[in-house]
Amino acid sequence: MATDPTVRADLFEQPAKSGCLDPLAALRTPEDPPWDVYLTGTVFLDIIFTGLDSAPVRGTESWARGMGSSPGGAANMATALARLGLRTSLAAAFGDDHYGEYCWDALEQGEGIDLSPSRKVSGWHSPVTVSMAYEGERTMVSHGHEPPPEEPAPHCPPRARAAIASLTPGTRAEWIAQAAAKGSRVFGDVGWDETGRWDLAGLADLEHCEAFLPNAEEAMRYTGTSCPRAAAHALAEKVPLAVVTLGAEGAYAVDGRTGETASVPAIEVAALDPTGAGDVFVAGFVTGTLAGWPLADRLAFAGLTAALSVQEFGGSLSAPGWNEVAAWWQEVGRRCEQDPAALRRYAFLAGLLPTATRAWPLARAVPTIGFRAASAG
To answer: Pseudo-torsion of CA 21, 25, 30, 34, nearest 10°?
Structure first.
C-alpha cells in the first residue's frame, strides 16, 4: 500500500517537555483515556556487563570493559513505549531497598512513566538480573522472591487506548478482561511454554486480544505448523491480527478481518545484545497501530526499532527514541551498505521524522546506581 508522507506529517508535533515526538498528537481529544498504553509485570534491576571477549570460564575471573544498570523486566517494554512518545502507565511491585528506589526513580522521573498503579512493598527485595553480553549473545543469572499478593485495586487497570499483556498458558489474568471491557485494544505476547504442551486453547486470554505477537518458534509450536507464515495464517483464525517475528528474516503479519498480509525484511545491523528487542518490536508495532498507520508500515517500523535496539547493550538502556530513528534514516540516506529495495520500505519515515540533532550511531551514557546523573560505565 503506497503511503503519502505528507498525509501524516501533522501526527508528529513537538511537545514542550523532553523533546519527544507525540505520534498521536493529531488524534487526541479531551475525551481520550488518560493513558495510551497500560501494562503490568515484574520489574527487575538489570546489571549488564559488556566488553567480554568470551563466556566466563569456570574457576576463573573475567573482567568486563563496561558495565551499566537499568530497570529491566516489564520496564523494558514500558521504557520502549515511553521513548516513542506514548503515555505509558505501569503497574508493578517495587522493593523498598535501594534497587527498588533506583528503578522507581529511573522510570518515573527519567522516562516519564506513570507509576500510580504501582506499589512499594516493605521488606521485599528487588529482583535482580545480571546479564553478560559477548559474541552477539547473552548469558543471564537472576534472583528474586515472589512479592506479597496484590492488594485490591478497584481503579486498576486504568482507562487506556491499549494494553499489553503477557499471556500465560493455563491461566487467566482478570485485568486483561477488565481492560478489554473498558475499551482498551489488547496486544498479547507470550513466552516459552515450560510445560511443553503448547496448547493454543490454554491461552484463555487470547480471546480478549486484538493482536497476538509471538516469535516464529512459538507460533509454529502453538499451531503445529512447520512454516512461520502458515502459523501466522492459522493464528489469524483465532485472533483478529497475527504478527510473527522471523528473526533475521524480518516479520510477517496477517489481518484475519480483512485478509491483508504484510511482510518486511530485517534491517542489517551489527548486533551487540538482543536483550529487550522483542519488547521494542511490540512497542513499535503498538505505536504505529494507535497512530493509524497501514499494516506494512507498522510492521516495518517495529522491525526498525528492534534492529536499532540490538546495536546497544541492555534492555531498557537500548530502547530507541525518535532521535535515534531520525539519525538512522539520515545516515542510511548517505550510505550504500543497505539493500536499496529494503530501504524503500521505510520511505514513509521521510515525512514523519524531525531533523536529527545528533550523529548516528548515537553513543548513550550508561547509568550506574549511586550517580545522580548518567555516567559511562
So the answer is: -40
Q: Which of 124, 120, 114 is nearest to 94 (CA)?
A: 120
Position 21, amino acid: L
Cell of 190: 507470550
Give the Cα separation of 284 and 298 in Å (integer): 7
pTM: 0.87
Read off the pLDDT of residues 172-221 as tens digits, 9 standing for 90 and up.
999 999 999 999 999 999 999 989 999 999 999 999 999 999 999 999 99
Q: Edge to edge, what strands does the sheet with 209-212 contain?
A: 88-91, 35-40, 160-167, 185-190, 209-212, 241-245, 251-255, 261-264
Q: β-pairing, 137-143 with 241-245?
A: unpaired
H-helix segments, 138-184:
174-181
Structure-derived torsion over alpha carbons of residues 24, 27, 29, 34, reported in degrees to the nearest 10: -30
Could you give the CA distance from residue 323 to residue 354 in angstroms, rounded to a whole number?
8
Cis amide leading into 361 (omega within 30): yes
Q: Residue 2: which region, alpha, beta or left (left: phi > 0; alpha: psi -120 to 50)? A: beta
